[in-house]
Amino acid sequence: MKEMPQFRQQLDNLLRTRDVQRVRAFLIESGQWYEDAPADPLYAMWLMIAGSDKLSDLHAEAREWLLSNGHENVVEALLGKESQKKTKPDRAVRSSRGKQSQGNSGRKPPHKGREKTTKRDV
To answer: pLDDT (tens digit, 9 = 90+) per residue, 55-95?
Structure first.
C-alpha cells in the first residue's frame, strides 16, 4: 500500500470529485477494496466523505445524500456533533460539565484521609 498521508490525500482528492467509479477503481488498485466489495460503493463513498475532516465543505451534501437514502443513524453518528456546534455552541460545554459532576450530584468529593461525619457521630 502507498504511504498513508499520500494515500489519504489521493483518496480525498478523488472523493471530492464524487465519481464513485474512480473512487472504487482507486481503492481496488490500492488493495483496500475487492472487486465485489463493498456491496454499495455509492454509500461507502458518501460515508467516507462524511467522515473526512478535509472534506468538511462537502459534509452538507453528504448529509443530504445519506438522509435521502435512509441512513439517518449514520448522519447522527458522523455529522450530528457538527450540526449541534452550529445550532447550539454552548451545549458541548454544558454536557462536559455534567459528566464531570456525574456520580456525586455536583458536590465536591470528600478529602482523602478524612472520614465523613454524620449527625449520629456528633
So the answer is: 999 999 999 999 999 999 999 988 875 554 443 344 443 33
Helices 4-17 & 41-51, crossing angle to 10 degrees? 110
Task: Output DSSP code: residue 42.
Answer: H
> Which residue is it, cell 478523488?
14
Domain boundaries, the chain: 4-89
pLDDT by residue (tens digit) across 6-65?
999 999 999 999 999 999 999 999 999 999 888 899 999 999 999 999 999 999 999 999
SS3 of 103, please? coil
Contact 45, 58 (CB under 8 A): no
Question: Cell numbers of 82, please?
Answer: 457538527
- CA neighbor of 41 nearest in space, from 64, 18, 63, 58: 18
Q: For cell 484521609, name the residue.
A: 113
DSSP string, 7-21: HHHHHHHHHHHT-HH
For residue 66, the tally of other CB atoms under 10 A from its CB is 22
Half-sphere exposure of 1 (CA within 13 A, CB side): 13
